[in-house]
Specification:
Layout: H1 4-35, H2 38-55, E1 57-58, E2 61-62
Antiparallel strand pairs: 1-2
Length: about 80
């Protein structure tokens, strides 16, 4: 048996996204832009990109790998 919130919450989210958001979002968008500026998001992604390019290592794995293709069958 599925609990009531597991059914009601997705339905309410769908109703909001489909019918209410087109009318509500233009009203609240200016307030959201003041609270959460886009520059902050762009600066963090740019900083991560520069750090990756400078040291050449991603997640502890070397960026340069061998490009040789080995033949499994040697007749």
């Amino acid at each position: 048996m599925v609990c009531i919130p597991c059914i009601v919450i997705p339905v309410l989210l769908w109703v909001y996204k489909k019918f209410l958001e087109p009318y509500i979002y233009p009203v609240i968008a200016p307030f959201i832009k003041r609270v959460w500026p886009k520059k902050a998001v762009e600066e963090t992604t740019a900083a991560k990109r520069v750090q990756f390019e400078s040291n050449g290592i991603a997640n502890g794995v070397g960026a340069k790998k061998s490009t040789e293709i080995s033949d499994k069958k040697a007749d």
